[in-house]
Design a protein that fits this description.
Strand content: 35-45%
Structural class: alpha+beta
Shape: elongated
Number of domains: 1
Protein name: DUF4442 domain-containing protein
Order of helices and strands: HHEEHEEHEE
Largest sheet: 6 strands, antiparallel
CATH architecture: Roll
Strand order of the largest sheet: 1-2-4-5-6-3
Radius of gyration: 16 Å
Helix content: 25-40%
Length: about 150
């Protein structure tokens, strides 16, 4: 099962919005939100909440791609998120997520018994390439309890 299939199966909101996972690798995740009238805002573009979900889902996809081999000992959790809406989004939009720290650094902190935090940056673009939103989600790998 691909990461996109797994997220669609386990995260109902991703499935509800019909998110399309176009690329999921440890270097980059690309997720698209199709143009769907039922998720529009008052000006006919994608609702801010749908765009936030798109960006957060892209960040989750890259986290799973980069740290999926750590799931037996830690659970990835979003710690905080911020989004800036830059330009009007109309039609389908696509989010591209990138890790803000090398995965090896994060795993080294986990190996040292720490609870690492790391940022994921996301750009959301409309079909003409214009950046409509910029987002950052800070994630952690919470070590599983040994009880």
């Amino acid at each position: 099962m691909s990461i996109g299939d797994m997220l669609a199966a386990t995260v109902p909101m991703a499935r509800t919005l019909n998110l399309e996972f176009l690329e999921t690798s440890p270097e980059q995740a690309v997720v698209s939100l199709p143009d769907q009238g039922e998720y529009h805002n008052h000006v006919g573009g994608p609702h801010a909440g749908a765009m936030f979900t798109l960006g957060e889902s892209a960040s989750g996809a890259i986290v799973l791609a980069a740290f999926g081999d750590q799931l037996s000992r830690a659970v990835p959790l979003a710690v905080r998120a911020e989004i800036a809406y830059k330009k009007l989004a109309m039609g389908a939009v696509t989010a591209t997520a990138k890790l803000g720290r090398p995965a090896a650094e994060v795993v080294a902190e986990l190996d040292a018994g720490q609870r690492p935090e790391f940022p994921v940056t996301i750009e959301i673009r409309r079909a003409d390439g214009a950046v409509t939103s910029e987002m950052q989600v800070v994630w952690t790998l919470r070590p599983n309890s040994k009880d």
